[in-house]
Design a protein that fits this description.
- The complex is a heterodimer of chains A (217) and B (516).
- Chain A is built from 5 helices and 8 strands, in the order H-H-H-E-H-E-H-E-E-E-E-E-E.
- With 217 residues, chain A is an alpha+beta fold.
- In chain A, a hairpin with a 4-residue loop joins strand 3 and strand 4.
- Chain A is globular, with a radius of gyration of 21 Å.
- In chain B, helix 18 packs antiparallel against helix 19.
- Chain B has 21 helices and 17 strands.
- Chain B is globular, with a radius of gyration of 25 Å.
- Chain B is an alpha+beta fold and 516 residues long.
- Classes of the chains: A alpha+beta (217), B alpha+beta (516).
Amino acid sequence: MTDGRAYAAYTYNVERLVPWRTLTGRQHFYLDHELYLAYGEYLPTYKPSPRPEAYGDLRETLKSGEAMALNCLTPHGKWHIHSTYMENHRMLTLSRGCEPCWLSEADAAKLGIQDNDWVEVYNDHGVYCARAAVSSRIPRGVCIVYHVPERTVGIPKSQVRGNRRAGGHNSFTRIHLKPNYLCGGYGQFSYHFNYWGPIAPQRDTHVIVKKMTKVIF
Amino acid sequence: MDVRAQISMVFHLDKCIGCHTCSVACKNIWTDRKGAEYQWWNNVETKPGTGYPGKWEDQEIYKGGWEREGAGSIQLKGAGKAKGLANIFHNPHLPSVEDYYEPFTYNYLNLIEAPPGDDQPTARPVSLITGKPIDVKMGPNWDDDLGGSPDYARNDPNLEALTPAEREAMFQLERMAFFYLPRICNHCLNPGCVASCPSGAIYKRGEDGIVLINQKVCRAWRMCVTACPYKKSYYNWHSGKSEKCLLCYPRLEAGHAPACMHSCVGRIRYLGVLLYDADRIQRAASAPDGEITRAHLDLILDPFDDQVIAAAQRNGVPDSTLKSAQNSPTYKFVKQWGMALPLHPEFRTLPMLFYVPPLLPVMASVTQTDGAQKERLNPIAKTWTDDWLYDTSTEELWGTIEQARFPLKYLASLFSGGDEKAVAQPLKKLMAVRIYRRWKTVGDIDESRVDEVLKDTGLSRDSAEAVYYLTALAKFQDRFVIPPAHREQALEMLEFTGDTRGSQGFGFLERPERGA
């Protein structure tokens, strides 16, 4: 807080006229790196998400009983910064006492899942057990687990994975490297910790969702 | 004319982001106590939704508020002398713990004290009432962001005003919307809680109209819990007294905004004095159904009117309070600009908390097409399966409000007792200010168009600028115009409140020592 004003991004660049740390010293909208040109991403570009087979998250997992393969997204939560504050008593009270798996009304009906039922969310990488939040704001074919639940708070044992304690959402996501993030040695595309480097857009994966048969803590 | 002063509130719903910082601020200060765990004097609801306690708006269940009888007089729906006596040992209309929620915590000790095993331990939820493990089935914000929409949002009592097709449209993914509704005690002019209390423990403070429960006089009849149609009076099972929002009066007396307002991240909350005519309360509260909102707003007097000022002074309203009334942001929103409405005026308690209805989401016109949408979008984009086209590039200025994703009927059911015209007016004004600002900052709208729009809504360029300022730029002292406390008139302020911590709403505990 300076002179009654809170910190905001880019104040150095705007008020003290410090050049942006880019090739031109200005903000870039157009990226002329070879790799970006090659991938057709030199301007903000919509690209459809790869098909589940390309991701390969469900090669080994057997779908059994009333279960469904869904695209699972793990966006940032409403009132937590990653796991911080998520397991705070107040915020757990103001949510549902856990980080539920959000399902669309149509998919939940197909799976025989009612709001607040226990569900298992699993794939080749791991399993997460949570309650279902059935909502009309979730598109069909998609489920959401907010980033990031704590397995220390009210997570039961998984029935599809040998009665072992289920993990958080990080157990069923994995790191998919995006090739553009590997480029470097050119202006702002130079490795700097937490600024530029191969990061993990792992928030898009595929899972099997089914109702829990038994809830064991 | 019996002129009195009331500290009133305006919540600007277009600005609410649903962060619940208000709820947490209130909880931490006032209800973090045994017996009060389940109480949220301030809560934020997602609309459409059933809220907290579940379906509180449905007075067929809870029998709150007043009802108008044939002769035009009003009676409490579920409380009062005869009904109170009839239900003295069992009141069937009281919300139960299932309607609120069973407060819970977690068995964190298990994380370090679990016996050795081959798996990681976890902290199970346990009830804060019984201490036993529970299945968490309800919370104070259970239907947040349309969670459980088949059970909650679709059972919102306000949807009764809509046809089945209109209801269904509200839950179509591409067309749906929701907004947040923060609620505190309305500090009503005709409070059901005050009228219902058999012990006379509840009173409306003379100097500022704050409604309080005297903790020494309360005998836990809980008639106030039933009588309040907003369910903002709560029973503390530990102290055996009822409790409610006290508008943080200890903070107000020290010149600070209530904690919920002070902490508001979206800066949606405004607080200021309104002058009203107490002689006309009964007439306003018993106005016929269609006229209740108008009668309610007509109670509020012009603080610049010489007659009003003289009458207020005769009644002992201090000049400093009158000055606050003249600078009041709530007077501007409610009366001067006509942009704020009471929540459920048909409950007839004359609430003094007003809401600027939400214009969200961004206006779009909805037209039926024959697959035209597909052609407009590029071939890889996802297209909807139906034939509806959502067009945000409309030339039509007002048509969009009637065609907005939120049916006017729904908003009217919340904010004007079903009067669609009354709720359309503030929305048109919000839109007019946007159009005015668009002309001023972007300049792609004709000046004549802007003048036409402003004229239609009764705003001038100056008032549009003032609305913009108070909505978008206002500082603490603009948003909260708190009248100075007058210690010489108020007895509560002479009390040392430290020894009564854990209780609230205390009134005249003892007479102050005066002179010899």
